[in-house]
Amino acid sequence: MLAPQILVTSDMPSASSSFPQKKLTLQTRSLREQVYDYLRAEMNSGGMQPGSFLDINALAGELGISRTPLRDALLQLEVEGFVEILPRRGFRLKSLGLAEIRNIYQIIGALEAAVLVAVGPCLGPDGLARMDAHNEAMRGAIVKDDFESFFNHNLAFHAEYLDISDNPRLTAHLHSLKQRLYDWPRRKAFANNWEEGAILEHAHLLKLIRNEEFQSAATYIREVLWSFEAQEAFIRVYYQTGRAE
């Protein structure tokens, strides 16, 4: 297993060279950030499974780092809900239960609805056209059985209005919550027509926005797109209830 590294490279010629010197190329991300990214990638791919405990000493040794950046990365994951700290037992990778999914859906619905009310008038024809294109690309991804493409275009559809927001803390929180929902680990297959339903819901949302019915669109986000109750049957299939609870 390769250890995360901070890279320092240089294109500088020798002192005797007559060519002008170039600046150092530095990778400025901290070791904690690199370790965090490594852990998230492992969780996303299924290399680390929910419910398991982490041997901090062994993992630090495998990565070739001290315990400090590893512990710092795990504390960040604990804040984001991926890890829990148990007294005298250490760090455990936290399972995603239905109660937590319900809470996350409620928060995302409220926040996305608030953003849409604020920025809906700013979307304009170009923004709406891009949202429509992402929705059509989702339809094409289903035909091709390409879940990864569907997943990315689904995120991009919502990003068209979220990225307009001038509240970076709100959008960062939304991003973190969606990671918690989707990346533990990320599924690679479609789930019983849920995706077809999402395309129809997106189309209805676009209709409301085009009609400048922004409050109705916000309500639709809260009560349909991000309603646990409205989506519960699909959620139970997608997250395999027996494992999630």
Which segments are poorly predicted (pLDDT under 50) over 5 or more consecutive residues? 1-26, 241-245
Shape: elongated
Secondary structural class? mainly alpha
**Biggest sheet features:** 2 strands, antiparallel
Average pLDDT, rounded to a whole number, is: 86
Summary of the model, kept short:
With 245 residues, the chain is mostly helical. It is built from 11 helices and 4 strands; from the N terminus they run E-E-H-H-H-E-E-H-H-H-H-H-H-H-H. It folds into 2 domains: 8-93, Winged helix-like DNA-binding domain superfamily/Winged helix DNA-binding domain (Arc Repressor Mutant, subunit A, Orthogonal Bundle), CATH 1.10.10.10; 98-244, GntR ligand-binding domain-like (Four Helix Bundle (Hemerythrin (Met), subunit A)).
Report on this model:
By secondary structure, the chain is mostly helical. Residues 1-26 and 241-245 have low confidence and may be disordered. It has 2 domains: 8-93, Winged helix-like DNA-binding domain superfamily/Winged helix DNA-binding domain (Arc Repressor Mutant, subunit A, Orthogonal Bundle), CATH 1.10.10; 98-244, Four Helix Bundle (Hemerythrin (Met), subunit A). The chain has helices spanning 31-45, 56-63, 67-79, 98-119, 124-143, 147-162, 168-182, 194-210, 214-225, 228-238, 241-244, and strands spanning 8-9, 25-26, 83-86, 90-93. The chain is elongated. 62% of the residues lie in helices and 5% in strands. The longest helix is centred in the middle third of the chain and has 22 residues, at 98-119. A hairpin with a 3-residue loop joins strand 3 and strand 4.
